[in-house]
């Protein structure tokens, strides 16, 4: 290896030793421990998420004067005695349809909403208005943060509230 190799090796060992010594010596600017207020990392825990989808009931189709937990049509239902209008959709009419196709589509949307409501827990969220002109509470209904109204839209059983009116009598 020769004298030159020995000299380079010794210089390298001295350099590494010097760096390790400087890094570990408090006199060379290593910051002192900063006092920390508040919980230590060992004490820090992430709080649990608030419970979702805690609402549930056994729904039926509305029939008769007593309406507690029942489905009226594809965008309206009763829950614990409150009449709820699903705020983010509009479904075909059953009670004042423009034609038989709309009435039939409305019955399918109503039946699908019944299945969705009975499929498990759900959540109700208020929007910018609490109630519509008929006194129905305007709510978006979700399960696992997904809108049940949007599910009806995706299945072709309703339209988004902010979209143009749909002619249910001109079904494809």
Plain-language structure description:
The radius of gyration is 33 Å and the shape is elongated. It is an alpha+beta fold and 172 residues long. Strands 1, 2, 3, 4, 6, 7 and 8 form a seven-stranded mixed beta sheet that branches. It has a two-stranded antiparallel sheet with strand order 5-9. The model has no long low-confidence stretch (mean pLDDT 84). A hairpin with a 2-residue loop joins strand 2 and strand 3. It is built from three helices and nine strands; from the N terminus they run H-E-E-E-E-E-H-E-E-E-H-E.
Broad structural category: alpha+beta
Based on Cα principal axes, name the global outline: elongated
Q: How many separate helices?
A: 3
Distance between the termini: 89 Å
Biggest pleated sheet: 7 strands, mixed
Query: Roughly what fraction of the amino acids lie in strands?
Result: 15-25%
The chain-level mean pLDDT equals 84
Report helical residue fraction.
25-40%
Could you tell me the radius of gyration in angstroms? 33 Å
Number of DSSP-assigned strands = 9
Helix/strand order, N-terminal first: HEEEEEHEEEHE
Low-confidence stretches: none
